[in-house]
Amino acid sequence: MSPFENMELSEVDSMYSSSASSPSSFTSSEECCAVCGNEVVNSSRYGAPGCLGCVVFFRRAIVRNSTFKCLRDGNCNITNEYRCACRFCRLQKCFTVGMRPEAIQRRDLVGPRSPVDPKPSLKSLIDPVAVTENNIDDSSNLLQNLVLLQNQQTFKATQYFTENNLLSSTESSRRADSNDVNLMFKLCMNQASEWGRQLKPFKRISIEAKQSILAEYGFAFLLVDQGFKTAREAKDGFWILQNNTFMNADYFLGMPEGYEVEKTTNKKAELHEKFVTDLLNSVAKPFRDLEIDDIECAALKTVLLLTPSFSKRAVYAGQEGYVASVHTQCMEELMEHSLNKFPDRGEERFGEILLLISSIRCGIKAIYNQTRVSDVFNFTEFDSVVKDILLC
Ligand SMILES: [Zn+2]
Ligand SMILES: [Zn+2]
């Protein structure tokens, strides 16, 4: 059962609209979706104001040349709550309110929108041409390109761990120590900044602004990556890092022999237990329950980059237009992906994925706190590069 069963999609919509960079800030607040009445308008580019669900619905219906049938008299009431019930009447309503098929851009029609191959060829992993700067945000397939980058990053990191003897075997996994944690922070800061460089709004801000975003986003990126891996590969109760080392709520599990127990050890063990339990419950469990896939993982990383916490929002000043357009594209592709994956409950699925963002933010707070008290997260031993970023 999904942990978000009781949330209404409208709550997700309003969460999505509460971000300062959301496209809805470009439309007047009185405007509603002309099709279903949803208060959060995504775009009017097809000829009438439409919410994300209705915009994606209209485009899919046109692009796929779908024909629907009404099971009643062709006069169903399309509201936010029941909009999925009758596709025939929903599409009729799209036309009635003025959405025009010819307004669908060529990009929408020609872009390869087939589901991504889960195992890209080795060539596409190694070949740096597969993902080149500048072409990502103009591409019709933002998320699929980012999944390629994601695969490249995992591949390169694993290669690095192997070459430097840092990879723990999966069968007899080793307890993560402060070197592992430090290394994963560095790795994720690098990967997060590489991710950002693919996206125009991030690419265009000053170095100081980038650092300020990365101080927070690096953690978000790390949590999504490790949560994703943990959900798919770890045994119950274990949180795993990118090099397969683990953290368990039991602080002493896997402790090297000859470990000296100090006065503060019990306190540390207590905090460690709370911390690991928090990560497992707020991130790994929902990722596992929802069986998050590569595209959804890439979408989460992207949305988190574009919607930093309130105190950091100002760093995108002057780039709001770019932020909104990348955000809209990411949301539309995620919605489309959800509808492809779950034709009957795609919109609900989309909402469940977006709700993970607040769980991830809780996890970020847990990490911040833990870096101050833990010896596994021993801040004083951290690399100066990581420290500089964390302190800014
Ligand atoms: Zn709508
Ligand atoms: Zn109908």
Automatic annotation (TrEMBL):
The keyword Transcription applies. Keywords: DNA-binding, Metal-binding, Nucleus, Receptor, Transcription, Transcription regulation, Zinc, Zinc-finger. It holds the Pfam family zf-C4. The keyword Thylakoid does not apply. Its main location: nucleus. Residues 30-106 form the Nuclear receptor domain. One of its GO terms (cellular component) is nucleus. Gene3D superfamilies: Erythroid Transcription Factor GATA-1, subunit A (3.30.50.10), Retinoid X Receptor (1.10.565.10). Residues 135-392 form the NR LBD domain. It is found in: Nucleus. One of its GO terms (molecular function) is RNA polymerase II cis-regulatory region sequence-specific DNA binding. Belongs to the nuclear hormone receptor family. This is Nuclear receptor domain-containing protein. The lineage of its organism: Eukaryota, Metazoa, Ecdysozoa, Nematoda, Chromadorea.
